[in-house]
Amino acid sequence: MPDHLHGILFVKEQLDCHLGQVIKGFKTGCNKAYREMGLAVPSAIVPSAATGSQQRKQEKRDRSLDDREHGQLWALGFNDHILSGRGELANWKRYLQDNPRRLAIKKAYPDYFRVRFDLQVALHTYAAIGNRFLLQYPHKIQVQLSRSLSEGQIKEKVEGYLALAREGAILVSPAISKGEQAVMRAVMNAHLPLIFLTPWGFNAFSKPGHQYYEACAEGKLLLLAPWPHQNERIALTRQMCLDLNSMTKEICEWKQK
């Protein structure tokens, strides 16, 4: 891609060092080749009153900002995900192949794909991706369905929520129960607006998942994460579910001042 690289690494034997060291070595080698090819722009020498130690610290800070004048092709750090579930490899291959198309969408609607970490809604602060203006809609409805509902009851509830969304309501849901997940899928498939509370936090590299990308581009989706990002997903506890439902209700009742 124009500003980053995706790759899938196959680790077939025990490594003598942490995988992060392997990535670091790869990036260091690229940086060296980048400088040797003469692609780095020489930085101007500016007289400074700083001590040698202070100047070195300042140069280190400059490099951390991916300043290519210092011959650094890569920014610091990387984002990884271990593929462990059945079908994940095929899904990620499709994701990488579809990356150029998603980039075109992202360039057309940049604000919908920018992670914001300080979105205050009532008493809570969220990380957010998507159309934040959905929060301003006056008619927001909480989607909360019991786990004990039958398939027939779930189908009836889905039709009811879809009717409300078609009339202009913004549905808000953490999609915890089977019924809530069915409502969310139906709303997404109908290209209707939705605010989704996800328990899995975002980091600076986060992007909306495969099924959410087009919805974000259409301005029909807002993803809110109340808790910090974690590389490994943990099982939802009862208290976490109660908290998500409480936040959902709070968002529906919240009016921006």
What this model shows, in words?
The structure is a single chain. The protein is an alpha/beta fold and 257 residues long. Helices cover 39% and strands 11% of the residues. The protein has helices spanning 19-36, 52-64, 88-97, 99-108, 151-166, 178-189, 213-217, 238-253, and strands at 116-121, 124-130, 140-142, 170-173, 194-197, 221-225. Strands 1-2-6-5-4-3 form a 6-stranded mixed sheet, sandwiched between helices. Strand 3, helix 5 (151-166) and strand 4 (170-173) form a beta-alpha-beta unit. Helix 5 crosses helix 6 (178-189). The longest helix has 18 residues, at 19-36. Residues 43-57 and 59-66 have low confidence and may be disordered.
Helical content stands at 25-40%
Shape: elongated
Which structural class do you get from the secondary structure elements? Answer: alpha/beta
Our measurement of the CA-to-CA distance between the termini, rounded to an integer number of angstroms, reads: 41 Å
Instruction: Tell me the β content.
Output: 5-15%
As laid out across the biggest beta sheet, the strand order is 1-2-6-5-4-3
One letter per element, helices H and strands E, the order comes to HHHHEEEHEHEHEH
Low-pLDDT residue spans: 43-57, 59-66
- Biggest beta-sheet profile: 6 strands, mixed
Averaged pLDDT, please? 83
Radius of gyration: 23 Å
The total of helices stands at 8
DSSP E strands, number? 6
Structure keywords:
single chain, 257 residues, alpha/beta, 6-stranded mixed beta sheet, 6 strands, 11% strand, elongated
Quick summary of this structure?
The protein has 257 residues and is an alpha/beta fold. Helix content is 39%, strand content 11%.
